[in-house]
Write a structure and sequence with these properties.
single chain; 211 residues; mainly beta; six-stranded antiparallel beta sheet; five-stranded mixed β-barrel; globular
């Protein structure tokens, strides 16, 4: 995928200082068996873990089924989050991660990447690059750019996870057991003295499946 314009992500109210596993490293794309195809992911787009990444330099050490035997402990291949439900994650930990690279502008030439260092806000993770992902936690608040929504949101609106971004709900909170968001307020994204764009502060909530 190409990068989407006007995307951005920022943790507004979180508990990250006490949650050392909320931020993980990963590479985004699709995994078919043992074949990984890298893709770009825009800032704040949603992803889920698909498999642990083999430790670099040890990829050739495999088992009898040609699967890598030496894996990173918490570095993952990441795939698109298609909905607000991740199997096995039924509590405050959602298993859904936002691309949050803390990076600077890069230019790539052949196998080399160079840091330009002029821009940091709204940058995605280029295909094949290892980047950071932040797990959405129920009750926490995050700020997103307009490009992280399928349509421009309004304050008080409920939004749901769909194909890696926020989608407007039908007007009421979901009852599927999925996580969802409530747009609490708008707040500008500023980079230095420059206005980047309107940010939307979203609180993460979890629905209760209808009985």
């Amino acid at each position: 995928m190409a990068f989407t314009a006007n995307t951005a992500f920022e943790v507004k109210i979180g508990n990250g200082i006490y949650n050392g596993i909320q931020n993980i490293a990963g590479k985004y794309g699709t995994l078919d068996g043992s074949t990984f195809t890298a893709a770009d992911i825009s800032a704040g787009f949603f992803a889920v873990q698909t498999a642990l990444i083999p430790s670099e330099g040890y990829e050739s050490i495999v088992d009898g089924s040609s699967n890598p035997k030496i894996l990173n402990g918490n570095t993952w291949y990441m795939g698109v989050a298609s909905s607000g439900i991740v199997a096995g994650y039924t509590g405050d930990h959602t298993g859904i991660y936002a691309a949050n690279p803390y990076d600077v502008n890069k230019v790539t030439s052949g196998d080399l990447s160079y840091n330009l260092g002029q821009k940091t806000l709204g940058l995605g993770i280029p295909a094949g690059e290892r980047g950071d992902f932040t797990e959405l936690i129920v009750g926490e608040q995050y700020k997103f750019g307009a490009g992280n929504f399928a349509s421009t949101p309004t304050v008080g609106q409920y939004v749901t996870v769909s194909s890696g971004k926020w989608s407007a709900s039908s007007g009421s909170a979901p009852t599927t057991g999925a996580i969802y968001g409530k747009v609490l307020r708008t707040e500008p994204f500023n980079e230095g003295a420059s206005f980047f764009g309107t940010g939307y502060v979203v609180q993460i909530l979890r629905s209760v499946a209808a009985g």
